[in-house]
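If your schedule permits, I should be very grateful for your opinion on a structural question. What I wish to show you is a protein chain and, alongside it, a tokenised description of its three-dimensional fold. Would you kindly read the sequence against the tokens and tell me how you understand this chain to fold? Here, with my thanks, is the record as I have it:

===
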Amino acid sequence: MKRVLLIAASVILSAGVFAQQKKAEDVVKFKEMAYDFGKIKQSVPATHSFEFTNVSSAPVVIESATPSCGCTTPFKPEGPVAQGKTDKITASYNAAALGTFNKTITVKIAGVDLPVQLKITGEVLNADAYAKYESEKTQAKPAKSGR
């Protein structure tokens, strides 16, 4: 009897150890995992949408989208995303602080053990520096020929 219980416990333990974990890429396919805003003007919020497609054989639920700080606000789909359908997680950065930024949004997908990390980066410039940047950018563009 002890031998049967020991063998049964071993089989159950082995099955748990070798069970394949579902990976995010088996469930959803993001068009991109990172986005660089480049240079943005201070106090003008910047927004980007991370599109994804449900590549699984069942509806997918985005349980949460958690920002790395209070300066970033993510918006996720509220309901299930049907098989083969595309949706988005939108990240809005408030651009209050000057300087470079590198923020993450941790996305938890129902039934997937490891969350997905989406990244946004950029540099916030004050109004004068941004105006100078825009002016230099405009001057650097080659003139179009009238042919």
Q: What stands out?
A: The two ends are 92 Å apart (CA to CA). Residues 13-19 have pLDDT under 50 and may be disordered. Residues 21-139 form a domain with the Immunoglobulin-like fold (CATH 2.60.40.10). The first strand starts at residue 28 and ends at 30.
